[in-house]
Amino acid sequence: MPYGFLDIAVTPSVRAAQAKMGANHLWEGFKKDRTFDAFTPGEAAFIARRDSFYMATVSETGWPYVQHRGGPPGFLKVVNEKMLAFADYRGNRQYISVGNLAADSRVALILMDYASRVRLKIYAHVEVAPLDTDPAFTERIVDPGYRAKPERILLLHLVAFDWNCPQHITPRFTEAEIATAIQPLRDRLAVLEAENVELRARLAARKDD
């Protein structure tokens, strides 16, 4: 069976680099039942927790352009096992990614979970859909609580994905993750402060006696 993601990523020049670095033997006969061309519930759950991702497009001149996309957790929607979608909100109005997609629909995404040191890589083709193409679908994709202006819907038709190893991922934590982690400390501190107030009151009462 084909590998899927590596079948796309490993080109003749990549094979030459592997051979030069003595790593080609690591990938010889690596063909396994790993097409990775359909999301499972595991990928869907991972994607639903993300509040950002990195997306690379390519211009007509061959230059890559990497853009950070962010929003509320789950703004990148899993429509089905073969498709993702997200609302393209107005930003600095350079429209570099949108322009690149008009010339070449291919994108590469990296979704990061820094806290768990996990990353998901995705190859896809993008279809640009106006907001008024399917109002019901647009309502499903656009987050009404997010204070930004949506300009279009981007549909990502999955080609292949792969999970990456945790090497060299420095753990980082969001404000919400930190708040959750230290909440037990806050709770304990509140208890100790209440006990301290009570003890001070008892000491003051004894002095009055």
TrEMBL record:
- Give start-end ranges for the coiled-coil region(s): 182-209
Keyword set includes DNA damage: no
Q: Which UniProt keywords apply?
A: Coiled coil
* Domain Pyridoxamine 5'-phosphate oxidase N-terminal residues, every copy: 44-129
List where the protein spans the membrane.
none
Say yes or no: keyword Zinc-finger present: no
Which protein, by its recorded name, is this?
A: Pyridoxamine 5'-phosphate oxidase N-terminal domain-containing protein
Name its species. Methylobacterium isbiliense
